[in-house]
Structure formats: C-alpha cells, structure tokens
Amino acid sequence: MHIRSLKQALIENLIDLISIKSGLMISESKAFDFLSEIPSGWWEGDKKEIIRIEVGEFEDAFIHLMYKVGAIQNKENLTDVVINYVKNNCQQLSLDPTNVMEVYKTVNDLRIHLLENTLQNKTFPEKFLQLPHLEILIRDFKDRYIMHNEMPDSVNWNGIIPLNTLFEEEIIPDGSSPNCYFDQRYIDYLNRQIEDIGKIHWRQFEYLTGEFFQRNGYVVEVTSGRGDGGIDVIAKKENPISGPEMILVQCKKYSDRNPVEVEAVRAFWATINDKGATKGIVATTSRLTSGAKDYCQAKLYRLDSVEHSKIKDWIESMKS
C-alpha cells in the first residue's frame, strides 16, 4: 500500500499523530533531530514536493519518533509485536514453535483480531482471551497502529502537553493531574533522553524532585523557588519508629561542566540546622566537587547528595 501526498502535509500528519499517541506535542525541528538518526528518508528535501511512499516508510518514522519520546518501550513494528507475542506464548497456544506455517497462521489470526478490536472494539475469541498479558499486547498494538488516531484509552490525560514547556517554562503543565508535580509523559521522555536532564528549566527540576518524594510516600511542598534560604523541596513523613521525618532538598540544575562547590553545600547545611530538619539533600543534574562530597560525608546521615547518575535512577524508577 502506498501514500501519495504533499511532503509538508505528510510531515505535519506524522507530528500530529505523535502528539495524539504520546500526549507530547513536539516541534518539527525536534522531530527532524530524531529522524536524522535514520538513513535518508522521505521527509528530507523540498517540502512542497508531491511524494509517493510505502505505508511502511511512514510507519518506520512514526515508530522511531514514538520510541524517542519514550511513548513505547522498543522499536518493534506491528508485525514484530504480534510475532514475538505468539512466540513467547506457544505453549499456551498449543503451538509447535518449529512449525513455521502453524505459527504464521496464528500470528495472522491474532493480528486480524487485534485490528478488529482496535477499530471496531470487537472482543477476542476465547483462545486469545486466556493468554497472559493480552492487555499489554493490545496497548502496544494500538500505540503503533497509525490508522488508530485516538489517544490511548489506558491513560488519563487532560489534553496534550508541549515538550518545550519542560525546557522553557516554570509552570506545571495544564495536562498534569492535580495530584502530581511532574507529568508522567515528561518522565518517560527523560528516561529515554536522559542527556536532556541538564537542559530542562530549573523549576521543572524542582518539580521532578518533588514528584519523586511524593511517589515515595512523602507529603511534599515545592517552595516558591526564590528567597527560600536555598530550600526548594520540603518532604515530610511520619515514621512510627523514629518519629516525624523532614527532609529539605536543594536543587541545583547545572550543566555537566558546572559542579556544585563546597561553599554552596556549607551554606545549605546551616539552613538544615536552622530549620531543625532530620536530613538535607543536595540534588543536582551535574555532580559535586570532591570538597563538597567530603563535606557531605563528614555530616554522616544528616546531609546527602544526589548527583546525575542517581537522578537517572530516580527517573528510571518512575517510568511507565
């Protein structure tokens, strides 16, 4: 099957579909940055040109972008998703994995039912309903199917949020749940594009930190960010054994070339003592100098640091 269209229109359709499926609105320049990783493609050259391409070429670009923004876990296409699922469930399907024709027939049958479920909401035959993790297969199929241009029914989004807000603005996106500081779509994006962590807006880094502590059972307050004595996040939790816990976090959104100096850590330590906190944490997208690390270690359990690699672990723990 082929698509014949004005190149610019096809590019716009691709980006619109990414927005709908992932919930993230990306710019054309960002899309092209990601697509540049693919060998020469249909999107290059004169945008006013009428082109004729295979549907598979459009799908390849779509799946690549979905993967790059963190909306899907791998780059498997529709066929590969179904094939791998059947291969992993040959025993449950009473299939001989060495019988290629039998496996192919089942793959084709399952694909047809996935299409009918996606487009017409038809139920699956009993032999498929009994399979493990069928709901994950359905979601993976819908996420990759370009003719299904609707938001995933497994998420609770309040609209599509712009990716550039993560880098340029200090507001919590309107699409976020009222009970969260940092949208799940941004977490999934950063989990895939961790090198961008040092580029996000400093306020968004504070929200990310607040989100991590909130998901770990703390009552969180992200402060105003200015004139707060170096306190960016306050995290409180009742501990039945040791008593009330109050953690103060200072967030340093720095580039890799700009480490946190010992003077900043020393000043924050004074704030920790002044507020009577049980613990203080310096969280940075960069790293601490050796002197700053030594200072933290000298304060035993009341002063700690979270550097770039640990921030990466935070994001990994919160991904979809």
TrEMBL record:
Entry keywords, A to Z: Endonuclease, Hydrolase, Nuclease
A molecular function GO annotation: DNA binding
Family matches, as Gene3D superfamilies: 3.40.1350.10
Superkingdom per UniProt: Bacteria
One GO-annotated biological process of the protein: DNA restriction-modification system
Domain Restriction endonuclease type IV Mrr: 199-307
Matches recorded under Pfam families: Mrr_cat
Name of the featured protein: Restriction endonuclease
Protein source organism: Aliarcobacter skirrowii
